[in-house]
Design a protein that fits this description.
This protein is α+β, with helices and mostly antiparallel strands and about 160 residues long. The chain is built from 5 helices and 8 strands, in the order E-H-E-H-E-H-E-E-E-H-E-E-H. The chain has a 6-stranded mixed sheet, covered by helices on one side. Strands 4-5 form a two-stranded antiparallel ribbon. The termini are far apart.
Length: about 160
């Protein structure tokens, strides 16, 4: 039975691309979570007034890929010590956040954060928050790198 995981790690285009390559990931969608507006558009989220984060919504087969592996990908694809930004992208929509769907995910996320903190001299800014409603982004954002082409191994 498929399970769901949702991560915010900066601009969702590259993050989705990386998660989509993981064996055991059944599907990925990009969108928004963690804000106040219903059915926000990309333009509205970019005003930095909705409170939403850009996220990747991952459906996965836990028999083929454990949640811990998804957490490894999450930590690898961004700098979790940056607060409300990733590289040149600045705003709360680019924050580092793990949205959990149950207590097991929450515990695993908290454990992984403690382990990841040991690798950084700066404090990790990643929030671990209970999942809220996921709002799918406009179609042109879905599988953006596959549509537009990208540099392989973008995050290595």
């Amino acid at each position: 039975m498929a399970e769901t995981a949702t991560f915010g790690a900066g601009c969702f285009w590259g993050v989705e691309h990386e998660f989509s390559k993981v064996k055991g990931v059944l599907s990925t969608e990009v969108g928004f979570m963690g804000g106040d507006a219903e059915n926000p558009s990309y333009q509205l989220v970019c005003t930095n007034t909705t409170g939403h984060a850009e996220v990747v919504h991952v459906k996965y087969d836990p028999k083929k890929v454990p949640y811990e592996k998804l957490l490894e990908v999450f930590w690898r694809v961004h700098d979790p010590t940056q607060l409300n930004r990733q590289g040149p992208d600045v705003g709360t929509q680019y924050r580092s956040v793990i949205f959990y769907y149950n207590e097991e995910q929450k515990k695993k996320a908290e454990k992984s954060l403690k382990e990841e903190q040991k690798k950084h001299s700066k404090k990790i800014a990643t929030a671990i928050v209970e999942a809220e409603e996921f709002y799918r982004a406009e179609e042109y954002h879905q599988k953006y790198y596959e549509k537009k082409g990208c540099i392989e191994n973008l995050f290595k």
